[in-house]
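Open question from group meeting: does this chain pack into something compact, or does most of it stay loose? Before anyone orders reagents, we agreed to write out a predicted structure and look at it together. Recording both the input and the output here so the notebook holds the full record.
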Amino acid sequence: MSNIYLLDATLRDGSYINNFNHSYKTIHSITSLLNKANIDIIEIGFLGKSHLSESTKFKSIEDAEAVISKNNNSCKYAIMLNYAERNQFNIKQCVGSIKIIRLAFFKFDCDGVLEYTKELMNLGYLVSLQLMATHMYSVNELNIFIKNANKIKPFAFYLVDSFGTFFNSDIEYFYSAINSILDLDVIFGLHCHNNMQQAVSNTIKFIEIAEDRKIAIDTTIFGMGRGAGNATTELLMQYLNDKKGKNYNISKILDIYNDYLYSIYQEVPWGYSIQYFISAQKKVNPVYIWYLNNKHINELNRIIYILDLIPENSKHYLDKKTIDKIIEDMV
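Structure tokens returned:
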């Protein structure tokens, strides 16, 4: 089915695992193999600052352009930009292979997002709106935001399960709420996390109920990603090949895993764990589990106690001041 776009986010979302530490040679090789796998959209990384000389955090779009493979004209390239960090970058007219900017933002930042989206569109970019922690929006808030977004027609509009809390029924609920309003010319995207072991199931549910419009699904190879990880590229490729008439070359994905990712997994494993299940259960950003583990806080009872003390307005992002105070008071 030509109305389904598979976006591989291994080099961006997956790279939280190794602090975005990939050589430019590795990035070029992985993008070349993703091209050969017939991936529809490759997310090359972040616009961001890094202490590394080579990584998938790029200081400019021009830096990212220099390292990607360009051997498949049907493949599109994307890069993510956090809206809160937009002023750190001087984004110039779109002239290269990276056509898509994925603009990520939380609800508290959404007021200025559409105006900035128009600026990026005027520079020639296709802009994808990534509504992080979409569950934080009420139906009325979503309605207002989508109606305003329709006026400028971004490239894509994403439902994002940032905390990995969704089940199939939640996908159906949000699909119905968004699809009833979102302009049919705008691609409807889904990004799932695997805290409840539902990322692949939820993505398949999304595909099955979205037969009337163009959609995009985000995946990473072997589910690579911080904590519980993401929906899995190779599993969803197999599903789309078998059930939707796609022609993805899964052997190239296995080559990437074998040649570049397996060694990372041996050092820093990812995937479902009880701790990341707890973060989903408590409806807090899973980055808190990562932060607590880095402070050698691993005991479940302590983690549960700490998460229960995080105030509602700090649950969606890592509030270091608040969490550090909670930890300090425990001592």
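Observations to bring back to the group:
The radius of gyration is 19 Å.
The chain has two domains: 4-267, 274-330.
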